[in-house]
Amino acid sequence: MSTVQISASDVNKLRQQTGAGMMDCKKALTETNGDFEAAIDFLRKKGAKVAASRQDRESNEGVVIARTSADFKRGVIIELNCETDFVAKNAEFIAFANAIANEAVEQNPKSVEELNQLPIDVENARVTIAEACIDKTGKIGEKIGVSKYEVIEGEKVVAYIHGNYRLGVLVGLSKAVAGADEAGKDVAMQIAAMNPVAIDKDGVDSSIIERELEIAKDVIRAEGKPEEMVEKIAAGKLNKFYKDSTLLNQEFVKDSSKNVSQFLDTVDKGLTVTAFKRVALGA
Length: 283
What we know:
Layout: H1 8-18, H2 22-31, H3 36-53, E1 61-68, E2 74-82, H4 85-88, H5 91-107, H6 112-116, E3 119-122, E4 125-128, H7 129-140, E5 145-153, E6 156-162, E7 167-173, H8 180-194, H9 206-222, H10 227-245, H11 260-267, E8 273-280
Antiparallel strand pairs: 1-2, 2-5, 3-4, 6-7, 7-8
Helix pairs in contact: 1-2, 2-3, 3-7, 9-10
């Protein structure tokens, strides 16, 4: 037991430094004889234990952050998860997610694993993002972690966050032209609403095409159509799938007289989408 008198001001000072709870700070100072550095280590170790004990907990709440580099040539999306909506709406939690996204933009990691090993400034210390998440777990009492990370590059990248940080979209455009920012946002909103499977039919995975064809053929046969007509009708249904489910062929939600490709052509001749990413919270 500590022989050092722990004052309320000491507890408050540690609380300000770490953001941990008052009782946790008092216990940390008591256990470490009032040594602030040791008390911070004590709290971090406590956080690690809390994180380990919550590995089986579901963390499907959180925020999705989309961000671009200063030159708009690269964009990232990160999803930072927690257990409850209450924590997800907390300003400090959102700020932490934004700080992670900023590091991702600056350092350009190739995977979520690399992202978690990036250094980040948290509570007057330089630690990895993975360590910072453990610290947050100890402080908040909920399992915290980055579950998704996406990145795209292009001549012009536009980022969009929808629904109070519940969905993020990145759109890569072929040219950085006048009107590209607004057009990119419009296309990003299209992606958020319509959830296309690819940019155009050439980007659709072959397994999806096979599945759509098989479903179409089964439906056609169930309707009693002659076998010699099945392939032709199925091909027509596949074209309808491309129209509904590939971005450039979708009806533009803000002007149904055009598809997305035609809309982009009105902004600048030949302007098109080169890449996109869509991340929905918990999906």
